[in-house]
Amino acid sequence: MLNASIVIYKHTFDEISLLVKILSVHESVHKIYLIDNSPTRTDNFLKLPVEYIFNGRNLGYGAAHNIAIRKTIDQDIPYHLVVNPDIEFEASVLVEMLNFMNEQTNVGLLMPKVLYPNGDTQFLCKLLPTPDDLLIRRFIPARLTKKRTSYFELRDSGYNRIMDVPYLSGCFMLIRTQALKEVGLFDERFFMYPEDIDLTRRIHQKYRTVFYPHASIIHHHAQASYKNVKLLLIHIRNLIKYFNKWGWFFDAERKKVNRETLNQLKKM
Fold first, then answer.
1. How far is CA 267 from CA 79, 104, 113, 263, in A?
2. Where are the alpha helices (H) located in 121-251, listed in sequence order?
3. Does the pTM of the predicted model rise above 0.85?
4. Fold designation for 2-267
5. Distance from CA of residue 140 to its chain's centroid?
6. What is the pLDDT of residues 131-144, one digit of tens each?
């Protein structure tokens, strides 16, 4: 059994209703929380089979999901699904993922294969980042960083096998509630962007954090910070907070975890 949370900001009813429908017909879904960070309340959302929580202001991605995650912990629901509003998937995806989590009790976080609408793979399995990976590379032409990007995104793995990965995308996270009880929720110091790095990393310290390619979803990934200067500045500010927390160029745990991740792939 699981609860699911969707955080929205200025989304329309039509943009959300399909995802809610997919989730609501799944027998394993106990409750769906629709967390609205928009400045204006949308009463149409009350028509959906969700618990609609209107915040009246933008709390940030992680802080908004934490509202629902705390309810999941209080209700003692074994799993919580963090899902972006721009996701499409078949109901069988949750069956596959829950079966794996039930069998592999040392897995704290599971992410499926993520595809673009055209079927191409989104490379969302990553090593723990260095400042080069997330800050410097952001301003360098892609053709000059192709090799480093491929390494950072574990592209040589082929994305066709189960892997333990220390940084998984927050667009679709199936999380064991017990793991959240142990390591804590999303760090609310991060308004948006690096909160999924931080949470995956903390779960990875005590549990396996796994990429599961036998189930796939479609993500209409907008990469908004590449198109909006305000979001770019928010992105940079929050990445600075991330490296202030974990370490910039000297991060012994990062070095150890990334080495273990790469060694694991060599053995496969």
1. 30, 20, 21, 7
2. 131, 146-152, 177-183, 195-204, 229-246
3. yes
4. Spore Coat Polysaccharide Biosynthesis Protein SpsA; Chain A (3.90.550)
5. 25
6. 888 766 666 777 77
